[in-house]
Each structure stands twice: as structure tokens, then as C-alpha cells.
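Backbone Fold Data
Goal — C-alpha cells
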Amino acid sequence: MRLLHTSDWHLGRSLLGISLLEDQQAFGDQLIELTHDFRPDLVIILGDLFERSNPSEEALHLLDHILQRLLLDCKVRVLMAPGQHDGVSRLNFGSWLYERRQLQLVTNIEQALSPIMLEDADGPAHINVIPYLRVHEVDQHFRSEKVPTPGHAGDVVLEHLTRFRRLRRRAVRGVVAGYLWVEGGQPCGEERPFEGELDSTVNPKSFEGINYAALGYLHQHQKLGKEGNLCYSGSPFAFHFESTPQPRGVVKMEMDSQGYCQSELVPLHPKRHFYRFGDSLERLLLGPQQALDPQDIVVLELSQDSDLLSADLIQRLRSLYPNLWRIERPEVQQQLKTLQQLDPVRNFQQFYQTVQGESLDDEARLLLADLFSEVEP
């Protein structure tokens, strides 16, 4: 069996006000090309598919375009499951029609517990797709057990799947495609915490008897488990500015008749990189230490000992760094953040006391409080 595995597209996302739709379109084109070349039996796409539950028209159109090309041009079977960002009701629209074109969308626990059969030259394989698990839904389904956390919910579902496999008389290769946080997996800080935040991880031992797990939720590519068969594809996009771009792409996996798996990340070429360079103004004025593409977007972070910026210095920086998006001074941003957290009425009272040498009376304080309450977001 041969499959491609990708996750966490977050279609429609922006980065510091920059739309990533063009970057995501470029990724879609490369995914189609890779599918043509690799000719997999299956493409697995795990949430988060969209950045928000009510995606923009452009994001919906892009997903539709990619799926059409996979199904009609590549003629490949596609399995898809939503994450916590995705609106399930919107994704479910027309799902019965998609299945006729070999696109299967798994959105609830009943579907997750029903294996999908795939037959290839080496025999049958069972695939279970696990979408984002809401604790109350899992708790309601397994009425005999109390499911307190997302991690426990994942363990309960996987234990049910593996117990079913152990009861079978004939060994069948097994694959799990799940939107899960497995213990040992390292977040990169971009991921939204699961509900409750605590005990969100699934025990790797819960995958016992499963030949391969294609995982989504964590944005960095990584392999877990003793045999490295629990695999996060990671997001194909960088959702933060970084000094050194990390490899991102799509995972391809091949499984033989005995269930032995080999997987690797196929790096894709982003339309542009998003760089963050931090140093003193003096050092930054020497130019970048690496070649930059004219399409790359750059943020410069000035150290605290840097001089104040003049218009001439800013112009020099713009000539050295193509597409310089903004210049940041972390200590100033921290001061502004601190001020935003303070009580504005109290700040004004202190200012008034300093300037006038007397305190505001009660009537003025009440009026001031009313004014600030009207302008709060």
C-alpha cells in the first residue's frame, strides 16, 4: 500500500496581515504533481483544513479546487477528517456525493469506529479515521466509561479499535489516521490548545497492533513510537517568521504485505519564506547573511542597544532586505503591552495628580470611567 499524508492546512490564514492564500495555492499545485508522480492508493488529509469554522469564500474555493484535481485528474481515493478549527456541518455538505468520487469524509465517532477497507496487490488493509474528538461525544458514546479529557478520549477510541483487531481470526494490516496529540509529540507553539488543555495527550501504547498512524494537529514533522510508525506530517506552511526555515512538505508511506512501513517527508518548495532576523542595528546594516529571494518577506527585530531609526536608516534597511515588512523593538512592544494591561482610569488619575498637583473628585472619576467603558472593544 502506498499513501500520501498531509495535515493542518489552515486555509485562509494570514500572517501579520499577509494573506497566505497564494502560498497555499502553490502548495496545492505541488501536492497534485506529487500525487501524479507517486501514484498512491490513498491520500489522507487531516484537519485543521481551514483557519476558522466559517471560512472565507476564497478558502472554500481553494479546497474545492484541490479536491477536484485529486479526484478527477489524479483519480485517487481521498480520506479526510476535520480538526478543531473546522465547521463540521459545512464540511459535511454534499459528502454523500463526494463518496461517489472516492472522497470519504469522517466527522463523528461512529464513522471513526467503522474501518474503511482498502484492497491492494498485497491484500486487504483496514483504515480508521479519527477526527477531532470532543470529550462529551466520546463520553456519551461509551456510556460505561467516564471520559474526562481529550487524551483519555483518544485512548478509549484506540483501545476499542485495537481490541476489535485482536478478536479477528485473520491478521489484517491496520492504519489509523487521527487528529490526535500523542505523548512525546512536540508542539511548536502555533497549535491551539485542546479543550481543558490538561491531559490532552494520547498514550503511544494505545496504538498497539496498528501498523501505521498518520497524525495531525502538531505542526512540525516528527516520528514517534519504537518503530517510528506514529508519524506527524506537520503543516506544509510556516505560520510564524523564522530565522532558519524548517523542512515542510508531505509524508509518503509504503507498506508491504507483512505490514512493515517505510515513511519519509517529501519537502516541498514554498512560494516564499517568512524570515525574522534579530540583531543590533549595526549588524543588520551589513545585510543578510544568506541569499534572499525577492518574494521573501522579512521582519527585523532590533536589539535593545540599537540606535534610534532615522528615515535614512530605514531606507538603507529596505534596500538590503527585499520585502521588509516591519521593524520591531521588543522592549518597546513589551512596554506597550504592559500599559495596555493597566487600568486606564488609574493611569489618568496618576497623570492628573502629577500635572495638577491634586486628585480628581468622585464625579470626574465616574465620568472618566464611563468614557473609557464606551471605547473598550
Summary: The mean pLDDT is 87. The chain has twelve helices and 19 strands.
